[in-house]
Design brief:
The chain is an all-alpha fold. It is built from ten helices and two strands; from the N terminus they run αααααβααβααα.
């Protein structure tokens, strides 16, 4: 049930929960330092801090739920921190690293990414209070930011240094922006699924995956986030084509 303004003010006067908001602050700090690193030309460091911010972001909600310290203040603070860490920080990183040479087209792409991220967060906040689902509507902004960071890390892993100018990066930014505000359904990885009993083989596969990620983190992060980003749109396109084919068959 939605609280009245008076109830919200009374709740805030009683104080705020420290632990989950400290975790959110850690996410905000990592995102802000990613911006600072991008401005100083340390793009690989900026990418790592965006990924660190994503880890903090994944933890703050879980900490709040496990300790029963969820609050409206925490939700709003988390949303603002996400906009900085996963909207502004990746936008500044990609503009400084790859989009600057494209001139107006480059900074407009970076701005489009930021504004679509803001719209994605606003839509999520509205839907979260009314809809309980195992899926996200649109690409989650932490996943979009992680995809950006993974691209930069892969570039450095393959021997690159400094800035680049590639049309593929421009297309990537526009694509991520569109996916964030799309109606494509993405799996949300809710806590309950991870806490249920699973076959022993799942544990073994998880351990192997962790070992592979540690061995080649830049390559594996890129592949994991690329698969997560593209899997749902591909499935949606296949389903659309099947529906169109079935409609044509039925009409004939």
């Amino acid at each position: 049930m939605k609280k009245t303004p008076e109830e919200r003010r009374e709740s805030l006067r009683k104080g705020v929960y420290i632990l989950p908001n400290l975790v959110t602050t850690g996410s905000l700090f990592a995102g802000f330092y990613g911006i600072v690193a991008s401005m100083n030309g340390r793009y690989d460091v900026a990418a790592w801090f965006i990924l660190i911010s994503a880890v903090f972001d994944a933890l703050d909600g879980k900490v709040a739920r496990l300790t029963n310290t969820t609050s409206q203040f925490g939700v709003e603070y988390d949303s603002l921190a996400d906009l900085v860490a996963f909207g502004v920080a990746p936008g500044v990183l990609m503009y400084s690293w790859a989009l600057r040479p494209f001139g107006k087209l480059g900074w407009l792409a970076a701005f489009l990414y930021v504004v679509c991220g803001a719209l994605r967060l606003a839509r999520f906040n509205v839907q979260a209070s009314t809809v309980e689902s195992k899926n996200f509507v649109g690409l989650p902004i932490p996943a979009a930011a992680s995809m950006v960071a993974a691209c930069v890390l892969l570039f450095y892993h393959l021997g690159g240094s400094g800035t680049i100018r590639m049309v593929s990066v421009l297309v990537l930014i526009y694509g991520l922006a569109v996916l964030m505000v799309s109606n494509v359904s993405y799996y949300a990885f809710k806590d309950a699924e991870l806490l249920k009993r699973r076959p022993f083989g799942i544990l073994v596969l998880s351990i192997v995956l962790i070992i592979v990620i540690v061995a080649q983190p830049e390559v594996m992060f890129f592949l994991i986030f690329l698969v997560y980003t593209m899997f749902s749109p591909v499935i949606a396109l296949v389903a659309y084509w099947r529906r169109r084919k079935e409609e044509k068959v039925s009409q004939n």
